[in-house]
TrEMBL record:
Domain of life: Bacteria
Residue ranges of domain Histidine kinase in the record: 41-258
Part of the full-length chain shown: 354 to 611 of 611
Subcellular location field: Cell membrane
Organism of this sequence: Sediminihaliea albiluteola
Name assigned to this protein: histidine kinase
Residue runs in coiled coils: none
Length: 258
């Protein structure tokens, strides 16, 4: 609701009343605003690395006698920014794909345990470097099969584990569990990391929302990971929820109906 307030005064400048206009913004207006914000945010996010890349490249081009060490460090920065740019474009394309298919994605039976194991494997090196312990708990030996889009589900799992690894300091613990009941599968990704303040817990699923922008950037984040997770979970008629305590850790739970 848009609220407009005006105070009415008489000629002697005494307050004689007020007018309050409550304007109910329709769902369409709200969606249009969300879309506009998104385009503005995306453009800004794309522009930042481009500006850095351009500035550094121009500096290198302008200075033919540049010290080799400085040139090397500039080139490394250009490389890092281009990786960031490419990750951003990939995430934006994923979001756009998710929105265009709206539930008509390729559906097949997916072995969720297998997807999780594969994802864990791809983080083995990072875990070793950060001395993180990654644990997997499977409730039973039986396969957990869910109908869905394998590409999307793999991305959902990757994004949650990637965050757990990113936001957990050295020596921490990431534990992943998979439980299935008669009618749903539950994936839990828990970490002993920095946690998320209560006031931010709902907002982290919004596109481009980050609790600490500088930290996320430094870690290679785009601010789109959790919005992609939420989108994919909902596309599978499921949901994602978060429990977290700052300084203690975070637990993300995804529930997908079978
Ligand atoms: P990013 O690319 O910045 O990681 P995400 O959409 O994946 O973007 O997450 C949004 C924000 O939520 C992050 O910037 C971070 O502040 C917070 N966050 C996500 N996962 C975790 C986690 N496991 N522990 C602590 N903070 C997290």
């Amino acid at each position: 609701v848009d609220i407009y307030v005006a105070v009415l005064r008489n000629v002697a400048d005494e307050t004689i009343g007020a007018v309050v206009v409550l304007h109910d913004i329709s769902e369409l207006d709200r969606l249009e605003r969300v879309r506009r914000d998104f385009v503005a945010n995306a453009s800004h996010e794309l522009k930042t690395p481009i500006t850095v890349i351009r500035g550094l490249a121009e500096t290198i081009l302008d200075d033919e006698d540049m010290d080799a060490g400085i040139r090397h460090s500039f080139t490394e920065k250009i490389h890092a920014q281009s990786i960031r740019l490419s990750k951003l474009v990939t995430d934006l394309m994923t979001l756009s794909r998710l929105e265009s298919v709206q539930g008509e994605q390729d559906s097949q039976l997916i072995d969720l345990g297998e997807v999780v194991r594969r994802s864990i494997n791809s983080f083995r090196q990072v875990c070793q470097d950060k001395q993180l312990t990654m644990k997997l708990e499977l409730a039973s030996d039986k396969q957990v099969l869910i109908p869905g889009d394998i590409q999307g589900i793999s991305q959902l799992v990757d994004n949650l584990i990637d965050n757990a690894v990113k936001y957990t300091p050295e020596g921490g613990l990431v534990s992943i569990s998979l439980v299935s009941s008669k009618d749903s599968a539950e994936l839990v990704v828990e970490d002993s990391g920095i946690g998320i303040g209560y006031q931010y817990q709902q907002r982290v699923f919004e596109r481009f929302y980050r609790v600490d922008k500088a930290r996320s950037r430094e870690l290679g984040g785009t601010g789109l990971g959790l919005s992609i997770v939420k989108n994919i979970a909902e596309q599978h008629a499921g949901s994602v929820s978060l429990k977290s305590e700052p300084g203690v850790g975070s637990t993300f739970t995804v529930i997908i109906p079978l």
